[in-house]
Amino acid sequence: MNKHQEQHLRNSDFITDTVIGLSDGLTVPFALAAGLSGAVASNGIILTAGIAEIVAGSIAMGLGGYLAGKTEIEHYDSELKREYDEVEAVPEKEKEEIREIFAGYGLSVDSQKQIVEELAKDKDQWVDFMMKFELGLERPSLNRARNSALTIGGAYVVGGFVPLLGYFFTDLPMQGLMVSSVLTIICLFVFGYFKSRATGQPPIQGAFKVLIVGVIAAAAAFLVARFLNSAV
Amino acid sequence: MNKHQEQHLRNSDFITDTVIGLSDGLTVPFALAAGLSGAVASNGIILTAGIAEIVAGSIAMGLGGYLAGKTEIEHYDSELKREYDEVEAVPEKEKEEIREIFAGYGLSVDSQKQIVEELAKDKDQWVDFMMKFELGLERPSLNRARNSALTIGGAYVVGGFVPLLGYFFTDLPMQGLMVSSVLTIICLFVFGYFKSRATGQPPIQGAFKVLIVGVIAAAAAFLVARFLNSAV
What we know:
The structure is a homodimer.
Chain A: H1 3-10, H2 13-37, H3 43-89, H4 91-103, H5 109-119, H6 123-134, H7 142-168, H8 173-198, H9 203-231
Helix pairs in contact in A: 2-3, 2-7, 2-8, 2-9, 3-4, 3-6, 3-7, 4-5, 7-8, 8-9
């Protein structure tokens, strides 16, 4: 097991996917609600729009992510088939490609030849090696893609409801915006912190990045919607 | 140059980023507008919400993508420093890790030793090798991250305006939804086709995937918003 895998295993995939979905789910619904707060008269419209966005965004993210994962597996399988065909059809060319990889790291011609001859003894390990070291591909897992899509999509829904909460318990859009901003800014920071930790970044710095994206998106949406509304 | 890089160079990064931004930009604004069409009485609110979403989504995608790219570079640099430190502090352990990689591909003990000794002669090439083949990391480019963020964010804005067009030129939300659906479905298919070609997937199949995500997200948002509206 290499260090990268160790690092990866320390964080459960489920927790990583959950904080990614939560922190991303906060951003766009928050900005949309903020934008509408500067332009409409009733909290009901903001809630409807916010919920429609959460439904749309979670499906786009979850289903889109799942289908992208399936595509990646198909891509891996077609590259795998191509490598098997090439190892069969043009073995000398494939051997030359392996020698070039090691030549690039300053290995002697003798070593290059020896590596290639030993690898080529077993077609499966030869192709495995080409997939990983020439093409940089590792076999993706369909289970993982499905679980990840469901977790991220579900967490996006939960995260998206945080900015909407402020509009449930207030009467006017600008009051809703005040409550929503306080709640969302706290959550963006907290989930940004855990998102960064889960993905191996410096957590405080990462928390500020997530917060900044959310606040800039919300401020821009608010200003544009208010401008449009006063112009019409 | 390996096959993967060749494949990559055939498509300009700019075109790839543009079609990704366009096809993603169509999806959520389309679904949001569809959702609101089942719940509000005026096209003005749909346009305001749609534009607020486009502003929010493009900033979240563009700025978020740029900051993620910067984080990736910091991560690479910190791993690079760690590898240099480890090669200095525990060279035997690092050599063992390389031998294990090649043992996994069935190479003889002699070859493993020979590779390691030759690699370890030059510290830079040793660390380069560890970064790529042990950790699977390649140095990301900041320029590329910035250009990509700007292109995807900009294309998201352009893509997002397609579903809104229908509401500009009609009087009632349901009329807007009809025009918007026809326009967006055509564009989802066309951009999905080029997105799939640009990312090396089967284009027709990929076009249907992009189309299906967009249509399901829009239908779900429409049904949820209409249900909420009739329940309140």
